[in-house]
Design a protein that fits this description.
Layout: E1 4-11, E2 18-30, E3 37-43, E4 48-53, E5 57-66, H1 70-81, E6 97-104, H2 110-119, E7 124-129, E8 132-139, H3 146-150, E9 156-161, H4 164-180
Antiparallel strand pairs: 1-2, 1-5, 2-3, 3-4, 6-8, 6-9, 7-8
Length: 181
């Protein structure tokens, strides 16, 4: 609320190295899936919007200096949130990944459509016909969406993901699942 800088010791995500970073805290996110708490913050030295897990942060020091561009940074974050599925974020909204999939629902399964509408986050749901719906989104990281997409697996009739690595992995996982049965 004070629009001030903070300095924190942050444990690296892929290493045991602790780094001291100066940040402008912008927003807290709490995952509905796993309860993890993340701080979305501006890392001035790297000129990046980043997500930091709170359980990886220690020795947090609130500085006296107020960030004069806090409102502009908060505005940029709001713009980025239109493409965030989880906590991965970027400044440049031109570098998003496209995902779309179609599902089939039976006549008495409108609860599936309501669920799709309720959980769509930054995407949109389009009605194709009485039994087919399409989900479409432009997101920063389609990998974050895969667990959710998998919950529709027996209903998906078509899927396209612009990130070929993610699409190939999704289809490979499906093949492995089919081989188990």
């Amino acid at each position: 609320h004070g629009h001030r800088y903070i300095t924190v010791d942050n444990l690296g995500k892929h290493s045991n190295e602790v780094r001291t970073v100066r940040l402008v805290p912008l927003k807290l996110y709490i995952s509905a899936q796993n309860g993890r708490q993340n701080l979305l913050a501006f890392h001035e030295k790297a000129n990046r919007l980043n997500s930091y897990r709170l359980d990886y942060m220690s020795n947090i020091r609130i500085e006296d200096e107020i960030c004069e561009k806090f409102d502009a940074l908060r505005g940029a974050l709001s713009k980025a949130e239109a493409h965030m599925w989880g906590v991965n974020c970027r400044w440049n909204v031109k570098h998003t990944e496209h995902v779309e999939f179609e599902i089939r629902v039976e006549d008495d399964e409108q609860f599936i459509v309501r669920r799709l509408e309720r959980e769509k986050r930054c995407g949109r749901v389009e009605k194709i016909d009485d039994n087919h719906y399409r989900y479409v989104a432009e997101v920063f990281d389609t990998t974050e969406m895969l667990p959710w997409i998998r919950t529709f697996i027996c209903r998906i009739t078509d899927i396209h993901i612009s990130n070929p690595v993610v699409e190939t992995q999704f289809k490979r996982d499906l093949e492995k699942m089919y081989q188990l049965y």
